[in-house]
Amino acid sequence: MIESSRQEVHLIADRFRADPRVAEARQLLLSALRDHQSALVGSQPAVPELQSAYEEQLGRLAEARGGKTYFPYLASGIGNGPWVELADGSVKLDFISGIGVHGLGHSHPLMLEASIDAALEDTVMQGNLQQHRPTIELSEHLLRLANAQGANLEHCLLSTSGAMANENALKIAFHNRAPADRVLAFDNCFAGRSIAMAQLTDRPQYRTGIPTALAVDYIPSLDAEQSAESQTRALNALDKHLKRYPGKYAAIWMELVSGEGGYYPGTTEFFQRLAERARQDNILVVADEVQTFGRLSRPFAFQSFSIDHYVDIATVGKITQLCATLYRAELKPTGPLLSQTFTAASSSIAAAEIVLRTLSDSNCFGDQGENVKRHDYFAQRLGELAGKYPGKIGGPYGCGMMVAFTPGDGTADTANKMVHAMFAAGLMGFVAGANPSRIRFLPPPAVTQREHIDAAIRIIEAVASATPSAN
């Protein structure tokens, strides 16, 4: 909530927010939420009497959107941390959180407060021509976080999607390094589904029927063993590309932990050596943090890998409830390249500020912070399952609040079948990677506890024990 300064005491808007009736309504809503969400403390099966109506609603949704949703998931509108109630009366343990979006889980009281604050604004959406005061606070907060360890990102542009944040990053890079027209990226990278981002994303099926809009050359990622040989291969590939197309690369696109690619993290040395080589050819370093932000030992993954001084542009999204492109002052475009009708919803801006504060206040960050501790515990429990069910569970993989395992033979079919079996049993995860395909989890960092991880492990074990061995 905006705090009134002496200059603002005469604003009608601030008198409205301070009205006792608003405060009373706020407290009544929060009290009602606490009373009703307290019953959501474990997975539950669907209520039989609701099944028919639920199936009919799912059918209507599929017809309207042109295809079925991945999960038969329709929220009822309430949850409790990682627990969420669906409209069929079932309760699921949501460990994918909208593919990393819901960092405070479901129905967090602070998010309700943020929504109330947003509802008191004069418009639902904020945009290019009409900004409001919380936009300033949020932009400055993101920049403070980004520069805490020595980065020099001085500007922040809010946007409504990760693809748009990444598009803006590309525009900044190309504009500044013109006439360079190529980009370097890692194998298995994912950057979004717009026409340009589909070109950057290393998934041919995402480009089916789409004209080529961007020249991209790929560098091998660091392998799962983080071997010296794989680092050498990546450096050699980078050097080969740079010599083949001298002066043609505007940026090297770094996804520091491959999300969709299968949860392969790099290392400080790996990223530093690539960034150093790129700098020799005047190539900008872009850190794509749309999935990693808020999930490792520091707010930004580039801070966790200590490459702050190399990063020229960074993008964030998902857990931040809106998206943003942060960049160095010397990269500020000289023409009107960066604009959009909407920067974000009023509720998204209010919620983003709450998320940033809560991640910090709940001790998510630090070498011994909760993100690291929860990862270690989750990885330990998955490792125990891997030992108990060899051939059915492999791993674990990932880092921070990005955890994955390989199911069975690692085929896409096996992974999808197990994901749906887990959903039916009360646990939500999602697929990632190819050859092998993995099952990934993005638990909400601010609210996940060991008891939730234990509940997830019980469901994974129940599904694994009921799954026939591949051989």
From the structure above, extract its key features.
Aspartate Aminotransferase, domain 2, seven-stranded mixed beta sheet, globular, Aspartate Aminotransferase, domain 1, four-stranded mixed beta sheet, 19 strands, alpha/beta, 471 residues, 40% helix
Molecular structure report:
This protein has 471 residues and is an alpha/beta fold. The protein folds into two domains: 119-361, Type I PLP-dependent aspartate aminotransferase-like (Major domain) (Aspartate Aminotransferase, domain 2, 3-Layer(aba) Sandwich), CATH 3.40.640.10; 370-466, Aspartate Aminotransferase, domain 1, CATH 3.90.1150.10. 40% of the residues lie in helices and 18% in strands. The chain has helices at residues 12-17, 20-37, 51-65, 97-100, 109-119, 133-146, 162-177, 195-200, 228-244, 268-280, 301-304, 346-361, 370-388, 412-425, 450-466, and strands at residues 75-80, 83-86, 91-94, 125-127, 155-159, 182-186, 215-219, 249-254, 257-258, 264-265, 284-289, 313-316, 323-327, 342-345, 393-399, 402-407, 427-428, 430-432, 438-441. The protein has a seven-stranded mixed β-sheet with strand order 5-13-12-11-8-6-7, sandwiched between helices. A four-stranded mixed β-sheet has the order 1-2-3-17. A four-stranded antiparallel β-sheet has the order 15-16-19-18, covered by helices on one side. Strand 11, helix 11 (301-304) and strand 12 form a beta-alpha-beta unit. Helix 2 (20-37) packs antiparallel against helix 5 and helix 9 runs parallel beside helix 10. The radius of gyration is 23 Å and the shape is globular. The protein starts with 11 loop residues before the first helix and ends in a 5-residue tail after the last helix.
